[in-house]
Amino acid sequence: MNALALLRPRPGLRVLITGAGSGIGAGIAEAFLQAEANVYVCDVDGAALDTLKKKNPALHTGVADVGKREDVDRIVADAGARLGGIDVLVNNAGIAGPTGGVETIDPQDWEQTVTTNLHSQFNFVRGVVPLMKQTSDCPAIIAMSSVAGRLGYAYRTPYAATKWAIVGLVKSLAIELGPSNVRVNAILPGVVQGERMDRVIAARAESLGISFDEMREQYLQKISLRRMVTVEDIAAMTLFLASPAGRNVSGQAISVDGNVEYL
């Protein structure tokens, strides 16, 4: 098989994507559908899932709060049954968490961020790995971290802490699951253009007492390429990691960020 052929994920790949009602998750789901995969997505926002399914009728969907273990167990069981197994898990669900100095952060906001961003990834992996070992000949786990998982991020400590933890989880799982042929990698998106990033910029601008435009320009000046990345950039890397071309890539934290130099 030539290198170009290796870049395409196998048709019929069975893919579960969390937090995929909109944004990066939805973009990844649509990319896998275009690659002829069978795709199941979950999200806490049922209306967003309905909208996505109307646009992509082939999708399987389920409403879930990924911070609740019982919801995770239900989704894993439903996805496994509907897809006939799971080959790829894209652990994408996450929240921005609070913005502010550490002394101002409500402990409940900290706990919610850790539960949604980190505990959910553990719970999905815990449920999916037995299915992968039983039914898949090309299993892959792809965890969504962040550029904040390799750089310090003042005023966003809960978010950054979870994203660093995800990288540690991935590198440990890659060693543990490698003998079972399960590949585990993390994608670290940078500043992704879209409504969610606009909200993050606005919140940080408010905390620092500057305008939205000033804050946005500060973000761009920290990126070597001086531009934001797109959802399509993230989806393309996800497809690569799920394709035969990525068959020997495991335990990696791969930045897709235009080279963010600092936060």
UniProtKB/TrEMBL annotation:
Q: Which PROSITE patterns match?
A: ADH_SHORT
Uppermost EC category? oxidoreductase
Q: What is its EC number?
A: 1.1.1.30
An example of a GO molecular function for this protein is:
3-hydroxybutyrate dehydrogenase activity
Q: Does the keyword Oxidoreductase apply?
A: yes
Q: Which residue windows are coiled coil?
A: none
Q: Which Gene3D superfamilies match?
A: NAD(P)-binding Rossmann-like Domain
**Which UniProt key words apply to this protein?**
Oxidoreductase
InterPro entries according to UniProt: NAD(P)-bd_dom_sf (IPR036291), Sc_DH/Rdtase_CS (IPR020904), SDR_fam (IPR002347)
Q: Name one Pfam family in it.
A: adh_short_C2
**What family is this protein classified in?**
Belongs to the short-chain dehydrogenases/reductases (SDR) family.
Q: What is this protein called?
A: D-beta-hydroxybutyrate dehydrogenase
What organism is this sequence from?
Answer: Cupriavidus pinatubonensis
